[in-house]
Amino acid sequence: MIRINLLPYREARRARQNQIFAAGLMAVLILAGFFYYGVYEIFSYRAAVQEQRVQYLQGVAQGLDKQIASIVDLRKERDQLLSREGIITDLQGKRDLTVRIFNTLATITPPGIFLTHLQQQGNTVAVDGYSQANNQVAEFMRNIEASTTFDKPLLNIISKAKLGNEEVGQFSLQMDIRAPVSATKSNGQSSKGIRP
């Protein structure tokens, strides 16, 4: 027997193709959704990793800022300590200055010179006195120049005067005080080789 299909097969085939197309489209949309979701997750993960790195670097930068601030504070403290050390060293060098001045003057003053007045202003010492002869004043100035305590003697006044019944020369001179020798140099030299 022959079977004849009287149903509209074209509409059925079209409906089936529409279903297959719809299913394919749905599958493509689902795959595209998964793909875009995967791409979104990858970029989100990378952004989170970059955010963590940025936070880490910000933490390191803040730590370095604190260290830099502490270094600046340490440098200020170091400068203050060096300043104090300089003041202490200066005071240490000048501590025995008066003793050195008098000791050196006693050593370098030749016989026949009598000192009557001594005045110190800063690094300059002014001396007044009497001499029996002018060549003694010249010898006194040579001794001043050769000493390690004084430098640059300058004769201000020399004149004749009477001291009791004797005629003497009256003089006034000034000299500079030399900077003290540093402790390391003075420790390395023997005291015998140092002149007053």
From TrEMBL:
InterPro entries the UniProt entry points to: Extracell_DNA_Util/SecSys_Comp, PilN
Q: Reply yes or no: does the keyword Mitochondrion apply.
A: no
Q: Name one GO biological process term.
A: type IV pilus assembly
Which controlled-vocabulary keywords does the entry list?
Answer: Membrane, Transmembrane, Transmembrane helix
Q: Which domain of life is it from?
A: Bacteria
Q: Which residues cross the membrane?
A: 20-40
One Pfam family cited in the UniProt record for this chain: PilN
Q: What is this protein called?
A: Pilus assembly protein PilN
Which species does this protein come from?
A: Acidithiobacillus sulfuriphilus
